[in-house]
């Protein structure tokens, strides 16, 4: 609920979303995001322990950008975030 309030007030490049949350689950949040003109195309990466293929397929039909299974492996999450940044046109950070 708090995330939806922030999204209504501010613009974000992407959203990481868990499915298990208090008050409203991630699927309900995603439904609201996709119903709003302002957030319909917001890239959403779901980070969840949900392994049922039927649920993941539903999320994909709802337009998620990526799905990362918990617990994420460090190398996997770094790669997926880098891929997301590239898809958003964000330049890689320079390393010292």
Task: Explain how this protein is built.
This protein is 43% helix and 12% strand. By secondary structure, it is α/β, with parallel strands linked by helices. It is globular.
Question: What are its keywords?
Answer:
96 residues, alpha/beta, 3-stranded parallel beta sheet, 3 strands
Mean pLDDT: 91
Number of strands: 3
End-to-end Cα distance: 39 Å
Strand order of the largest sheet: 1-2-3
Helix/strand/pairing category: alpha/beta
Helix content: 40-55%
- Poorly predicted regions: none
List the helices and strands and how they pair.
Blueprint: H1 2-9, E1 15-17, H2 26-35, E2 44-48, H3 53-61, E3 66-69, H4 74-87
Parallel strand pairs: 1-2, 2-3
Please give a quick description of this structure.
The protein is of the alpha/beta class and 96 residues long. It is built from 4 helices and 3 strands, in the order αβαβαβα.
